[in-house]
Amino acid sequence: MSNRSRPLFGYRARFTLTCYALLAVQMTLLVVFVYVPVFWAFSKSFFKFEVGSESRFVGFANYAELLFRDPTTLPSLLHMLFLTAFAVCVRLSVPLVVAKLIHSLSREKSRYLFRLLFLVPVVVPGVAVQLIWYGMIYNDRGMLNELLRMAGLEEFVRGWLSDPSTALVAVAFVGFPWVGGFEVLIYYAGLSSIPESVTEAALLEGCTGIQKFFRIDIPMVMSQLKLILILTIIAGVQSFEGLFILTKGGPGFRTMVPGLWMYFNAFSFQRMGYACAIGVCLFFIILGLTVLNMRYFRSTTELEGRG
Amino acid sequence: MTGDRQRRVRDLALMLCIGSFGVLTLVPFAFTLNNSFRANYELDHAFFGFPENLTGLARAAVAAISGSDAVFSVETDTGELVEATGWDAAGRYWHAATKGYRVSWGSLRPYMINTFIVCGATTLGVVTLGSISAYILSRYRFFGSRLVFYFIIGTMMFPAALTLVPSFVVVRNLGLLNTYWAMVLPYIAGGQVFATFVFKGFFDGLPEELFESARIDGAGHFRIYLDIVLPLSKPVLSVVAIMNILGTWNNFLWPFIVNTDGRYHVIASGLYVLATTTFAQNYSSLFAAYMTASIPLLVLFTYATRPFVRGVTSGAFKA
């Protein structure tokens, strides 16, 4: 009985152990499905490596090939840059304008209903949206071509995604007019949080309409703009699901982006090591852009803190 | 009075502006819905048009109500024409119009069930694990607790592009390809990070007096978590859960990669498979599949919009 009264560890140690026991599941999942893949991404990028067969150390050969010898590298980077810049432009402007228009309505009920209206397309699976644009709008007998035929503009009729001169722009225009329901909600939240006093002061100074939008509203929603900017850049650099569905990088390599090239290398050509090297490069691009973003764009909270 | 009138004119102008954005946004979806009721030959004949079977349905319904005994010839599933009158004709027209939905449902149903299983398990795991870790990290200081927090939050630094290929290798080496686990476990691993972050922010803001009075009343750690913290954090829980469901629901690439034999496809990857194989040339079934696939989230949103809008609008989302 006497040795039961003395616990093996002190209370503090037992408490700490209990905490770790409760955190164990989460930590294990993170190690297995995040940290191990991250470690492998870096280490396997130095190997020539096929799934199911042995891997061979090749040093920086994968990186050298990617940076200097692969003819797709430069075009894919430029396509990625164009698509990302385009997405940034439309996502920072259109939803903000729509949110401002909704915010300017005088009745609370109509403001709520219009916010809901733009949330409706969110229920359609993202893949279905891409497939609708692929099959119903850009198709040879799709909406765009049928509209052109009806207007008598037969010479403009084309396979928008298969014509090398239009493919990239057609990809960028998917989702027109780019009024994302979430973005509207987030910008709307920013506009609603502008204090009444600021609006009144602006009014007294005779600052209204367009001027107020640029001088008051945009600086006051800067933190929301910054959030959407970061998210859009990260998505633009790494995501390629849309391109996979729409064009598979074609025609030729006209819409190839690094992420898609990584996918093909890994899952079509069985060049896992090379794919890992592309992934590592994408990681550093995203890291660099995020750091730049945090450096040079101050959010409103920081501005308030300084003021 | 003039001020009131001016405001109404201004509102009307604003609504026209917003409305035109709304119409442009919804046009593709409206056309998908419309064309899901139209057979291929109708599309070939005229791209823009109302479904023949639905106009037939309307005419038959009018005839039935007005008591006329006009005879309609309606196509059956096998393609032959049947003569019918009144409500019988209307029913047959409806049956013919919704053919695409019936055809596509057979292929869609397993995908739907898989999605429910994957989404449900993922969301449950994310909310449970996320809230427990956030509670521990927010309320207790112990040896290495800050380190653990950075260990969890640090994973946000790694983009999906970096881990996509090696994650596949991990899942393959664990022998999880073509199972639900291949989707559920990585989703939980990734999703709980954001959940922990959001929950911890919320728990940190709960007043200390709350926990003190609960302790004085004799509640243990687990009781406090279950009976006080969880009920209080319902709004945050629902936002995290909805964000998670949306992310899981829309993830196309990962299920597409890890279901090498195609048995456990979810809606997202399944729709792609249907669009490129089975229904590549059968537009009404394909469009019907898109529409059917949108119903679950539509139901979710009709019940959860209010807390969701409130959650997003509360200002939790800024950088």
Query: What is the CATH fold-level name of the largest domain in chain B?
Result: MetI-like fold
**Helix coverage percent of chain A:** 55-70%
Bin the helical content of chain B. Answer: over 70%
Biggest interface, chains and residue tallies? A-B, 98 and 90 residues
Q: How many β strands of chain A by DSSP?
A: 2
Briefly, what CATH class of the largest domain in chain A? Mainly Alpha
Q: Could you give the order of the helices and strands of chain B? A: HHHEEHHHHHHHHHHH
Largest sheet of chain A: 2 strands, antiparallel
- N-C termini distance of chain B: 44 Å
Reported by name, the CATH topology of the largest domain in chain A is MetI-like fold
Low-confidence runs of chain A: 303-307
Number of β-strand runs of chain B: 2
Cα gyration radius of chain B (Å): 27 Å
Strand content of chain A: under 5%
| The CATH homology group name of the largest domain in chain A | MetI-like
Overall 3D form of chain A: globular
Please tell me about this protein's structure:
The complex is a heterodimer of chains A (307) and B (319). With 307 residues, chain A is an all-alpha fold. Chain A has two domains: 11-63, no CATH class; 65-306, Orthogonal Bundle (MetI-like fold), CATH 1.10.3720.10. Chain A contains 15 helices and two strands. In chain A, strands 1-2 form a two-stranded antiparallel ribbon. In chain A, a hairpin with a 7-residue loop joins strand 1 and strand 2 (56-57). In chain A, helix 8 runs antiparallel to helix 11 and helix 13 (258-267) packs antiparallel against helix 14 (272-296). Chain A is globular. The model of chain A is unreliable at 303-307 (pLDDT under 50). By secondary structure, chain B is mainly α. Chain B folds into two domains: 2-99, no CATH class; 101-316, MetI-like fold, CATH 1.10.3720. In chain B, 76% of the residues lie in helices and 3% in strands. Chain B contains 14 helices and two strands; from the N terminus they run H-H-H-E-E-H-H-H-H-H-H-H-H-H-H-H. Chain B has helices spanning 2-35, 40-45, 52-66, 86-97, 99-139, 145-153, 160-173, 181-204, 208-216, 221-232, 234-250, 253-258, 267-276, 283-316; strands at residues 71-75, 81-85. Chain B has a two-stranded antiparallel sheet. Chains A and B meet through helix 1, helix 3, helix 4, helix 5 and helix 6 of A and helix 1, helix 5, helix 6, helix 7 and helix 8 of B.
